[in-house]
Design a protein that fits this description.
It contains 15 helices and 15 strands. With about 475 residues, the protein is of the alpha/beta class. The chain binds one RNA strand of 75 nucleotides through helix 1, helix 7, strand 12, helix 10 and helix 12.
Length: about 475
RNA sequence: GGCGCCGUAGCCAAGUGGUAAGGCAGAGGUCUGCAAAACCUCUAUUCGGCAGUUCGAAUCUGCCCGGCGCCUCCA
C-alpha cells in the first residue's frame, strides 16, 4: 500500500516518494522562542510528530529538523523591554519548549538549530543571492530579495491567482524596497538590535537576518552537509506559513541553489478556541503548562488532536477534551488486560483480528495521515479484543502477539495514558486492598466501601474482578 | 476586495456518486455485595437551505444562509 500525502504545492493528495529511500528528510518550522508556545502551536508540532512516527512505522529512516527562531522583531522588542540580551531572553523559552515537547510525548527531532547559531550560513546564502542578482541592497542598507527577478514566485501560495488587499502592505512599509513584494533578507542593525545583541557583521553590512532566511539557510546547511543534497523530502508547518514564509523560503533556496527546495509541502490547520484561531494577538491562548495545571493527561490532548484530520480546523472545548480522555482511558484498560492475558508469554500465533487492525490502521494512515480513521480502526479493534478476552478466546501467546501489534500502532499515535505510580503509594494501596478484602469477607460492606472511597480520594480506582481486586491510578 | 476551508446525531468526527465509520454522552440488559471495567442492544430514513445533474447525491453543479482562515515577521 502506498502512502499518499497532500502536497500544498500541487493541492493534491499524491504518492509520497522520498528522494533517496529509505531516508526521508523532514523539516518542520518550529516555535519562535519569545514566550511559551501555546497549544495551537503544539497542534502543528503534534501533526509533525505523527507524520514522523508514521514514516518510521513504515520503515523509513527519518531525519528530522525543527528550527527554533531566536531572533526576530518580537524577541528583540521583548528583550529590550526586559533589559536582557536576546540570547538570555530566548534561552528560558527554548528550555520551556523542550519541557512541553516532552510532556506531550513528542519525539525529539534530530536537530533543533537556532537561528543565531547559523548566522554564517545565512550570510553565505545572502551573498549567493546577491551574486546571482536576486537580491539588492536598499537605500537603508538592508538587503532585499528581488521577487521580480525570481521566476515562479507565488507557486506555493497561488499568488498569481489573487490580488493583494488594496493598500494592505505597500504604503505601510518601513523599509526601502524596490518592489512591494520584495522581502528583507538582512536588516540593517538598529540601536536596539545592538543593545540586545542581535547584530552581526556581514560583508554587506552589520545587521540581522530576516525571518525567512533562517529556514532556508539551516535546512540547506544541514542536509547538504550530511547527505550532499539540497532538496528536502518534506517541509511542514502551520497553514499560516504558506504565505509569505514558505513562499519566500522557496524563492531564497531555489534562487540560490537552482534546485527544488522541497518535494512535499505539508501544512497543518489551526487549533481554534471559542470558534476563533488561538493566537497571542487575540489573547485566547492556552499553554501546555495550563493543561498540566488542569490535570489534562498528555494522552488526552494527543487523542483530541488526532481525532480530527490535520488539515481540518479543530475547536478546542472541554467536552471534546473529556471525550478524548475517556477514549484514551479505554485504550489503557485494554492494554492492561492484554498484559494480564499474555502473562509474560512470548508471541505465538497471530489472531486474525490483529491483522485486520493493522490493515485498517495502515489504510487510514496511508490516506494522507487520516488519524481519525486510524483511531476508528483502533476502537473497533478494542471492542473485538475485549470480547475475545471476555470469552477467553486468546492463548497467552496470542495475547502476546496482539500486544506486539497493538504497541507498534500505539507507538505511532502515542495516545495511551501512562500513570506513573510511586512505590510507597503502591505499598499503601496494597495494604488498603487487603484491609478491604477482610471487611468484605466479614460482610462489612460499609467498611469496604469506605476504604474504596478513601483510596479514590487519592486518585486510585479499585475494581473487583474474578482474579481479585485490581487498581489503577487515574491519569492526570 | 481577492484566495481558500468548513457546516453530518446532545457533543466530537469519518465518509467526496451506490444507499450514514468511530469516539464521548444517554437508555436498557449481562456481570458484581454494591460499584468500576468489559460485553450485548438501542440512539441521524438523514447529512445548513433551495434548485439542478443522475437509475441513484452527504458526496457533482448553481444560488442562498451560517462559521473560520489567509492576503500583516501568526503554528
Amino acid at each position: 500500500m502506498v502512502l499518499r500525502l497532500y502536497n500544498t504545492l500541487s493541492r493534491r493528495v499524491e504518492p509520497f516518494e522520498p528522494l533517496a529511500p529509505p531516508r526521508v528528510t523532514l523539516y518542520t518550522c518550529g516555535p519562535t522562542v519569545w514566550s511559551y508556545a501555546h497549544v495551537g502551536n503544539f497542534r502543528t508540532f503534534l501533526f509533525s510528530d505523527l507524520l514522523r512516527r508514521y514514516l518510521e512505522y513504515r520503515g523509513y529512516d527519518v531525519f528530522t529538523v525543527m528550527n527554533l527562531t531566536d531572533v526576530d522583531d518580537r524577541i528583540i522588542k521583548a528583550a529590550g523591554e526586559a533589559g536582557t540580551s536576546v540570547r538570555e531572553f530566548t534561552d528560558r523559552f527554548a528550555e520551556a519548549f523542550f519541557e512541553d515537547r516532552d510532556y506531550l510525548r513528542i519525539k525529539p527531532a534530530d536537530l533543533y538549530p537556532r537561528a543565531t547559531a547559523h548566522i554564517e550560513h545565512m550570510i553565505a546564502l545572502v551573498e549567493q543571492l546577491l551574486d546571482r542578482g536576486l537580491a539588492y541592497r536598499g537605500e537603508d542598507g538592508s538587503v532585499y530579495f528581488s521577487v521580480g527577478a525570481f521566476n515562479g514566485y507565488g507557486r506555493l501560495s497561488r499568488l498569481d491567482t489573487r490580488e493583494l488587499k488594496p493598500g494592505a502592505r505597500v504604503s505601510s512599509d518601513e523599509y526601502s524596497k524596490e518592489d512591494a513584494r520584495d522581502f528583507a533578507l538582512w536588516k540593517t542593525a538598529s540601536t536596539l538590535d545592538e543593545t540586545v545583541g542581535a547584530a552581526w557583521d556581514a560583508p554587506f553590512g552589520r545587521g540581522r537576518p530576516g525571518w525567512h532566511l533562517e529556514c532556508s539557510a539551516m535546512a540547506l546547511a544541514e542536509i547538504r552537509g550530511r547527505f550532499g543534497i539540497e532538496t528536502l523530502d518534506i517541509h511542514a508547518g502551520g497553514v499560516d506559513l504558506v504565505f509569505p514564509h514558505h513562499e519566500n523560503e522557496i524563492a531564497q533556496s531555489e534562487g540560490a541553489t537552482g534546485r527544488p527546495f522541497v518535494r512535499c509541502w505539508m501544512h497543518g490547520e489551526f487549533l481554534l478556541i471559542g470558534g476563533t484561531k488561538m493566537s497571542k494577538r487575540f489573547g485566547n491562548t492556552l499553554t501546555v503548562r495550563d493543561l498540566r495545571e488542569e490535570g489534562v493527561d498528555p494522552a488526552s490532548f494527543r487523542m483530541l488532536v488526532f481525532s480530527t484530520h490535520y488539515r481540518q480546523q479543530l475547536n478546542l472545548t472541554d467536552e471534546a477534551l473529556e471525550a478524548a480522555t475517556e477514549g484514551a482511558q479505554r485504550l489503557a484498560e485494554l492494554r492492561e488486560r492484554l498484559g494480564r492475558a499474555a502473562a509474560g508469554a512470548s508471541p505465538d500465533g497471530v489472531p486474525r483480528e490483529v491483522e485486520q487492525l493493522e490493515r485498517a490502521f495502515a489504510e487510514a494512515m496511508n490516506d494522507d495521515l487520516s488519524a481519525p480513521n486510524a483511531l476508528a480502526a483502533v476502537f473497533t479493534f478494542v471492542r473485538v479484543a475485549n470480547r475475545r478476552l471476555d470469552e477467553g478466546a486468546w492463548s497467552a501467546g496470542e495475547a502476546a502477539a496482539v500486544i506486539e501489534t497493538f504497541d507498534r500502532i500505539m507507538e505511532v499515535l502515542e495516545v495511551v495514558p501512562r500513570a506513573e505510580v510511586e512505590d510507597d503509594l503502591t505499598a499503601w494501596v496494597a495494604e488498603r486492598i487487603k484491609a478491604r478484602q477482610r471487611a468484605r469477607k466479614a460482610g462489612d460492606y460499609a467498611a469496604a466501601d469506605a476504604i474504596r472511597d478513601e483510596v479514590a480520594a487519592c486518585g486510585i480506582d479499585l475494581k473487583d474482578t474474578p482474579e481479585g481486586t485490581r487498581w489503577t491510578k487515574r491519569a492526570g
